[in-house]
């Protein structure tokens, strides 16, 4: 049987890995005796494979692996909450009250400024959810947004007849406290 160099070349990985059958070993060694130059080239090419086989496999550090898995879990949890909040703010303006066989109150119809307010929040949360921003960038965007949002209430002092613009100090306080927490988180993440 006439064995070509291509056939032997195909068998070399199995031969050098030590996984070849006895007949394959005999075939390759016979070819090496017939062509010593090819044997020299093949053995020099197999040297990197031998050194790779002899090196120990790198095992990840257990603490590092645990930290990475915890970060992934927290990221997935955060995305789940972002989706839920974005969906809530999207559908909240469509809320209605049903009394005595007809719709008594609907936010979009009866309080359009409040509905617009909710949809602005929904847009922000959908942007953050879909853009996959880093935690630090998301904190910055939300902090700026929540810092500027209470200006809507300040407009009531200049335009008292504007519909839906009420002077509700409680809502303003909640928004600014939330903004302060986000600013704190942004600068804390910056130091890491």
If you had to describe this structure to a student in words, what would you say it looks like?
There is one protein chain. This protein has helices spanning 5-17, 22-34, 36-54, 62-91, 107-110, 112-131, 135-148, 151-158, 169-191, and strands at residues 96-99, 102-106. With 192 residues, it is mainly alpha-helical. The chain has 2 domains: 5-54; 85-191, no CATH class. A two-stranded antiparallel sheet has the order 1-2. The two termini are 68 Å apart.
Key words describing this protein structure:
mainly alpha, 2 domains, two-stranded antiparallel sheet, 192 residues, 5% strand, single chain, elongated
The overall average pLDDT, rounded, is: 78
**Shape summary:** elongated
Structural class: mainly alpha
Uncertain parts: none
Task: Enumerate the strands of the largest sheet in spatial order, edge to edge or round the barrel.
Answer: 1-2
Summarize the biggest pleated sheet: 2 strands, antiparallel
Number of domains: 2
Could you give the order of the helices and strands? HHHHEEHHHHH
Q: Percentage of helical residues?
A: over 70%
Gyration radius over CA:
34 Å
Total strands: the figure is 2
Proportion of residues in extended strands: under 5%
Kindly report how far apart the N and C termini lie.
68 Å
Count the helices. How many? 9
